[in-house]
Amino acid sequence: MPDVKLELGERTRWFNLDTGAAPGLILPVHPEADPPLQEAVEVGPSLYHQAAGEIRTRRGRLRQDVPSGRSVIPEPDVLFSPVLTNEGMIGSDMLRAFVLTFDGVRHRLQQHPRTGTSAVR
Q1: Would you say residue 61 lies in a domain?
Q2: Which residue among 21, 25, 91, 100 is least packed, with the fewest CB closer than 10 Å?
Q3: Is 94 within a domain?
Q4: Backbone angles phi and psi of 39, in degrees to 5
Q5: Can you give the CATH number for the domain in which 61 is found?
Q6: Which helix (DSSP H) or strand (DSSP E) does residue 93 occupy?
Q7: Does the model's pTM come out above 0.85?
Q8: 43 φ, ψ to 5°?
Q9: What's the confidence (pLDDT) of residue 118?
Q10: pLDDT recorded at residue 8
Q11: Is residue 118 part of a domain?
Q12: Residues near 33 by Cβ (< 8 Å), separated by ≥ 6?
């Protein structure tokens, strides 16, 4: 699977596509590098990680829209995971909002908003 580059705050971040992860955006826990949030983070759901078992997350809502290809994800909720180290994950909740086309020859991923969804515009 290709990595996806997203601009969050002043940083470029790389994300893995993970259809097994239900939440939309999951970021590593690095308080000094956290993207701009609308309010303080709160306790998030516990998730299961294959290697680490049950993990506790923090949850927040971004204070900005996230450009993704030709689409925009308006002020998404994000989870912060203590298990991730560098790259984030894009889970199935967010992937459902797109029609994805994998172009293996050109090493590209094309994404188009799925009609009828309010998660992207």
Answers
A1: yes
A2: 100
A3: yes
A4: -155, 180
A5: 2.40.70.10
A6: helix 92-95
A7: no
A8: -65, 130
A9: 59
A10: 80
A11: no
A12: 11
Chain length of the chain: 121
Q: Quote the CA–CA distance of 93 and 7 in Å, as a whole number.
A: 19
Residue 35 half-sphere exposure, CB side, CA atoms within 13 Å? 28
Q: Kindly list the averaged pLDDT for each block of 10 residues, start to end, along the chain of length 121.
A: 77 84 80 72 83 85 82 85 86 83 82 71 62
DSSP notation for 21-32: --SSEEEE--GG
Q: In this structure, which amino acid lies at residue 105?
A: V
Please tell me whether residue 54 adopts helix, strand or coil conformation: strand
22, 31 contact by CB (below 8 A): no
CA 97 to mean position of chain CA atoms: 12
121: in domain: no
Query: Per the structure block, which two tokens stand in for 118?
Result: 């309010």
- CA atoms of 116 and 107, how far apart (whole Å): 28
- Can you read off the two tokens belonging to residue 90? 């894009």
